[in-house]
Amino acid sequence: MGREINHEKDELLELLWHLDESHTLSIEALREHDPTNIFERSLREFSTNGIVNFDGRNVALTESGYEAAKGIVRRHRLAERLMVDVLGRRVEDTEQAACEFEHILAPELVDSICILLGHPKQCPHGSPIPEGGCCNEARSSVESAVVAVTSLKPGTSAKVAFISTRDEDRMYKLLSMGITPGTSVKLHQTAPVLVLEVEQNQIALENSVGSEIRVWRATPGSGRKAS
Amino acid sequence: MTTNCHSSAVMDQVAPTRGIPLVAVVGPANSGKSILFNHLTNSYSVVANYAQTTTRALRKKSSFAGRESLLIDTPGIASLSVTTDDERETRNILLSERPDSLVLCGDATALKRTLVLLAQVKELGIPMVMALNKVDEALKKGVLVDVGKLSIETGVPVCEIAAMRGAGLDKLENTAPQAPSTLSTGVIYSSRIEEMLAGLSSLFPDENRPCRGELLLLLAGDTEIKNSMEVRYGEDQARQFNAFLRKVWLKSSPANLRSAIFNARIAWAERIVEAVTASTTLNMAGFSHRAAAISRHPVFGWPVLIAILWLVFQGVGTVANQIAGVMDGWIAQPFTNAVSSLITMQFINELLVGNYGLLTMGVLNAIITVVPILTVFYLIINVLEDIGYLPNLSVLANRVFRLFGLTGKAVLPYTLGFGCNTMATLTSRMLETKKERIMISFLIALGVPCSAQLGVMLAIMATAPFSALLIVLTSVIATQIICGVALHRMIPSTKKSEFIIELPGFSLPNWKNTLRKTWFRLKDFLVEALPMFVMAAGLMFFLDKTGLLSGIKTLMHPVVTGFLSLPDKITEVFILVLSRREVGAVHFKDIYEAHQVDYYQTVVGLIVITLFIPCISNTMAMIKELGVRWAVGINTSIIAIAFLVGGLVNYLIRMI
Question: Is the same domain home to A156 and A138?
């Protein structure tokens, strides 16, 4: 069951997925990407492992190959989202790290990230993120585990998951007021502006700021801090 | 700057360079620094139950810990990363002036934030003692703080105080500020950051090395500290550390380092809070929070506001004016008559008690008319401040101020404007952007009458038909909204500032403190305004005697009479408003009471006085906060707006 880490094969699988996604999967297209033709040897290997159907001329992903490729792409695009949304990186800076990520993330960890991000549908570049098991489960349990504090009902409490803002000053202002990941906040009122209680202190802030404060939904055992 | 803060600097080593030791009181917002400062120096600076009451540092010589010292009260900060001018002042005091010792005023009800700040301030290596305030309030909220343990964990001596009551201060003075020892290093960062720090530190000469706090700021890409270091250490050294920083930043960005440093401090603070606090089930804070919640409720908040405004109107318009009437009958009239009969020399008689007499128009107007009004007004405002109403009002007001590109936070300077425009303009520095400061200064100068002026005007309107009040109020509010929105459109926004503000729970006003504060504010008024009243009277007397007054009246005739349909005598009011708004208003009241103006003229006159040019001291405040260009621009447009709106209303009401 253990996924062996083999970067080259992962890259090839990812390429196959991309071509398949854009309906241009053919040997010619593959040659364009890799004129050295080294891929053909890997393809034959894939073929014997049941990852692709390959007869020397036509190439197509098998069911299991499709799933494997989907996993890689999902990891890559979730990693991009993670870096942009949570770590506040610029989209163009994420490529290198996302490529590393896609090879090393364990499947359980991928789902945790997906839950943390609220089962995003698209990567920062706008391409669809393949769904995982957690997304289906989430759909049946209706909502994701991490939501904006604005979507809480007045009178309820929740723990802060992270602050998703591009404005550094605002981030430090919130942090220094005690709104830090792991702290419990209570929503007092939503109109005309939000009023939060943090450590016995009350803080008023506008909706636009509140929507950047993401909290764990207060359902027990909903994957809170997977560690 | 020759202090080396890695050596355990003792006060005595540094003191001679400055004469007497410099002791700064610092701390997070609304932790009670100013009350503490007042107690330590036996002086008075205004305190209130909300953040950012102190917007500029206050210095006072006093004996501290048995030594003659210069104490500084500073605006509250959350960290050395600052966003507004008042916070920057505190940062500059800490970094550039380097006090010899610090009193960190901590807030037991917000212990984590206090400790996050302590962690950073401690890294500056200045001997420090913590005065932990509000321990009793924390207990009411169900949190018990172990002060002894806190002292051990932080490595800073901690004294429990209750600044409101002045308790625990003796002990504070006896606890000498302790230099940071090697035993308690404070926050230890990840090995990666510690290595960078060591590397950066080694670039500086042994005998004059920047302190850990400065190195951390430098590492996190703080440009201000970088510039000051370049000046302090010269080009060669600057080239070295800049090269080092560039190399470090290739691997991890300054923003990244900054957040790692910040998170480490938070984790440190959290660990200590966990260790030194115990929760009790006792919670008595419920009522104060519920009361505060009602005052900012989207529905119930408005009746509360209207009730308060009604109270102000009744208090100032009716109660204060009746007091003034009684004082006038019992004191002013007999006094004037006595002086009048005692002094027979015509010229002196007129100079003292004539139309523009120094005593009648100067001293008596200030004391008899203005003091009762101010007393009532300040009593109400001070109670509201001590309760902690204003920040809660900002929740309701946010949407209104958004019209002008401001946030609800602007409610604080705006309301202060009703006390004194000048003071309010000076507190505008608590707002984040220059645009916000311009907007609030403009709005205050344009349509917010100061308390004395407001009181006099309310007194006039209380006896005039009710429609006068409605027309004046509508015109002034409409003018403010239209001009405010227009100005907001005209000034490009550089950065949209967000509304984030701390709300204090309601606390019952302490009557002794409230009365004390009212007394100090009245005293300030008399000291500042009484000479202005007398000088204004003298000016009018001079203009009248030399015939200049009739000359100015002739000059202004086309505008005053032609355009506004006001009698020529109103020109006197306009001249007086320039020197101080309320002097003009009082003179207008005299004219009104002498029936020299009719209904229409009363309405137009009131509108023009309200909108008219800010007084000299407010103009000076604007120059100080915004620069000459903006001050001139704002004043010129306000004169134009005042006359245009006056003319328009004059035309409209005569049509109906």
Answer: no
Q: How confident is the model at residue B183 (pLDDT cuts 50, 70, 90)?
A: very low
Contact in structure between B460 and B634 (CB atoms under 8 Å): no
Same-domain check for residues A192 and A124: no
**Whether residue A177 is found in the same domain as residue A131:** no
Q: What count of other Cβ atoms lies within 10 Å of the Cβ of residue B548?
A: 12
Are A173 and B500 an interchain contact pair (Cβ–Cβ within 8 Å)?
yes
Is A118 in the same domain as A209? no
Q: Chain B: residue nearest A210 by CA?
A: B500
**Residue A64 shares a structural domain with residue A136:** yes
Q: Is the pLDDT of residue A24 over 50?
A: yes
DSSP letter at A91?
A: G
What is the ipTM score, two decimals? 0.72
pLDDT value, residue B181: 52
Chain B nearest-CA distance from A143, in A, is 28
Q: Is B62 on the interface with A (CB under 8 A)?
A: no
Please report, for the domain that includes residue A5, its CATH number.
Answer: 1.10.10.10
For chain A, say whether B218 makes contact (Cβ under 8 Å). no
Closest by CA to B202, choosing from B445, B6, B475, B471, is B6
Q: Does the pLDDT at position B646 exceed 90?
A: yes
Structural domain contains residue A136 = yes
Helix count (H) and strand count (E) of chain B?
A: 30, 9
Q: How far does B565 lie from chain A, in Å, by closest CA?
A: 44
CB contact under 8 A, B289 and A175: no
Query: How close, in Å, is residue A97 to chain B by CA atoms?
Result: 13
| Local confidence band at B4 (pLDDT 50, 70, 90 cut-offs) | very low
User: Chain A within 8 Å of B505 (Cβ-Cβ)?
Assistant: yes
A151 and A169 share one domain: yes
**Chain A residues within 8 A (CB-CB) of chain B?**
88, 167-178, 180, 188-189, 191-193, 195, 199-206, 208-209
CB-count burial class (<10 Å; 0-12, 13-18, 19+) for B541: buried
DSSP string across B483-511 = HHHHHHHHSPPSSPPP-EEEEPPP----H
Instruction: Mark which of A122, A143, A164 sits at the end of a domain.
Output: A143
CA atoms within 13 Å, Cβ hemisphere of B255:
11
CATH code of the domain covering residue A194:
2.30.30.90
**How many residue pairs bridge chain A and chain B with CB atoms within 8 Å of each other?**
98
CA distance B159 to chain A (A): 22
> Which tens digits make up the pLDDT trace of B360-410?
888 888 888 888 888 888 888 889 888 888 888 999 898 889 889 898 889
Within 10 Å of residue A79's Cβ, how many Cβ atoms?
22
The range of the structural domain enclosing residue A210 comes to 146-216
Looking at the structure, do residues A55 and A14 belong to the same domain, yes or no? yes
At B284 the pLDDT is 57
Which residues in chain B touch residue A199, judged by CB atoms under 8 angstroms apart?
A: 110, 112
Q: How many domains does chain A have?
A: 2
Average pLDDT over every residue of B116-138: 89
